[in-house]
Design brief:
- The chain has two domains: 17-348, Bira Bifunctional Protein, Domain 2 (BirA Bifunctional Protein, domain 2), CATH 3.30.930.10; 362-453, Rossmann fold (3-Layer(aba) Sandwich), CATH 3.40.50.800.
- Helix content is 41%, strand content 18%.
- It is built from 16 helices and 16 strands.
- It has helices at 17-36, 50-53, 59-62, 84-94, 137-153, 166-175, 181-190, 193-207, 212-222, 232-246, 251-269, 338-348, 372-384, 399-409, 419-424, 445-453, and strands at 40-41, 47-49, 67-68, 77-79, 102-111, 123-132, 159-165, 277-279, 293-299, 310-316, 331-337, 362-364, 389-391, 413-416, 426-431, 436-441.
- It has an eight-stranded mixed β-sheet with strand order 1-5-6-11-10-9-7-8. Strands 13-12-14-15-16 form a five-stranded mixed β-sheet, with helices on both faces.
- The longest helix is centred in the N-terminal third of the chain and has 20 residues, at 17-36.
- The chain is elongated, with a radius of gyration of 28 Å.
- The model has no long low-confidence stretch (mean pLDDT 91).
Length: 454
């Protein structure tokens, strides 16, 4: 049989055990925050019917969907692009078993045929928290607040959750006299503001045939919000008030501003830190299913290597469930991009010291062939008491090699039982971090181990 050269698909990765342990820490931290807010766990298949996914995200996004089909199968399938559309499909199939409001979180991989770059891969995890059945802005405020809480619990402080409203963006376009395709082109251009700057967006709007006077109105409004990190809530009230005067008589814009005002008031009531909130009238969010408030979290850093784009995003999508059932239901959610968060956390070494390189707590060494059975019995005893234990199983390796193995893997403690220790009913325990060594009776080994591990 010909040998196969090992390789990975583009944009996908393997994870070493130490990598997985760090990822589990991040996932467990985020899921713990979700559960404190009353969100419950959900799982759905990685494959969905193709028709379930298509037509929900917008033409540009749907070009990135991976399609799948078994050679002998008839179903047209696709790998899930996000966790939002699977949620609404799930709800439509299972709503008789659910109570409203339905609050769920889902942490799982998704797939997009995007161009791989720093902090962006074709297979990556999303961490979503969504609420179905609440029309009021308290649900939107909770979505923002849960993201802020999760980021802060992971150790981030310098970040901002940008907030805007799709209804306001529609109102700004209508106020400027745009409709149809011209309105869609407006969103696409504004969405590029961070990449091409104010002058680039202005030029693109002019190139799309929008009159210079209209472009001036649009640019003035979308860049009018000023930020005050010390009191972003006061700044938000001022910015909303200024746009109310400018857009008076545009119903969509007024509705969007009303929702933003309610959202800000609810965030204040939830004690969401003001320094992490920022109104941004130029923020669009690319997915087409958003219908109201939209959110996007970015890290504030002067380090060019930490400019990874948004680390969380979401918003209200009241119409999406209506594609799968007779009537629609109000729905809002937020998604944290843990791949980008982990990239930054790795770079900054933001993990607690308790995060080890291995799950193993004790390596039970084997002195020689004659003592192996007793080492096996001791390992079994430790496992029975809940100690994560590895028995050294390579033949003809001396004690020094076994210590080297434990050190390389990051196993904190090595247990040694030679013929003399076995005869006396003892075990020698050595903690590798500080070379502390103690010999105790085997009946006392468990208590000593807990002390050494602590």
């Amino acid at each position: 049989m010909n040998k196969i050269r090992p390789q990975l698909p583009t944009g996908m990765r393997d994870y070493l055990p130490a990598d997985v342990l760090r990822r589990q820490y991040v996932i467990n931290t985020i899921s713990g925050v979700f559960e404190r807010y009353g969100y419950e766990p959900l799982q759905t298949p990685v494959l969905e019917m193709q028709e379930t996914l298509m037509g929900k995200y917008g033409e540009d996004a749907e070009k990135l969907i991976f399609h799948a089909k078994h050679p002998m199968g008839k179903e047209e399938l696709a790998l899930r692009y996000d966790l939002t559309v699977p949620l609404v499909r799930f709800f439509a199939l299972n709503e008789s078993k659910l109570s409203l409001p339905f609050k769920r979180y889902h942490i799982a991989p998704v797939w997009r045929a995007d161009r791989p770059q720093r902090g962006r891969y074709r297979e990556f995890y999303q961490c979503d928290a969504d609420t179905v059945g609440i029309a009021g802005m308290e649900a939107d405020a909770e979505a923002v607040s849960v993201a802020v809480s999760a980021l802060r619990e992971l150790g981030f402080r310098e970040f901002a959750v940008k907030i805007n409203n799709r209804k306001l963006l529609i109102g700004i376009g209508q106020y400027a006299g745009l409709e149809g395709e011209a309105l869609s082109n407006l969103y696409r251009s504004i969405d590029k503001l961070d990449k091409i700057g104010v002058d680039g967006v202005r030029k693109e709007l002019l190139d799309n045939g929008i009159a210079a006077s209209i472009v001036d109105k649009i640019m003035k409004m979308i860049t009018s919000a000023h930020s005050d990190r010390s009191d972003s809530y006061a700044a938000a009230a001022q910015n909303i008030g200024a746009l109310r005067e400018e857009l008076d008589g545009t119903p969509s814009a007024m509705e969007g501003l009303d929702e933003l005002e309610q959202l800000v008031n609810n965030l204040m009531a939830l004690n969401t830190p003001a320094e992490n909130i920022d109104l941004d009238f130029s923020m669009v969010r690319g997915l087409s299913y958003y219908t109201g408030p939209i959110f996007e979290a970015v890290l504030l850093s002067d380090d060019p290597e930490e400019r990874v784009g948004s680390v969380a995003g979401g918003g209200r999508y009241d119409d999406l469930i209506g594609l799968f059932r007779k009537d629609t239901l109000p729905t809002v959610g937020i998604s944290l991009g843990i791949e980008r968060l982990i990239y930054i956390m790795d770079k900054r070494n933001m993990y607690p010291p308790s995060i080890n390189r291995t799950v193993v707590q004790v390596l039970v060494s084997v002195f020689n062939a004659e003592t192996k059975a007793e080492s096996m019995r001791f390992a079994s005893e430790l496992r029975g008491e809940g100690i994560r234990t590895e028995l050294f199983m390579q033949d003809n390796k001396g004690i020094g090699k076994q210590f080297g193995y434990a050190d390389k893997k990051g196993i904190p403690i090595v247990a040694v039982m030679g013929p003399d220790e076995i005869a006396r009913g003892e075990v020698k325990l050595k903690r590798l971090a500080d070379q502390h060594e103690v010999t105790v009776l085997r009946t006392q080994a468990l208590d000593t181990l807990h002390s050494l591990l602590d």
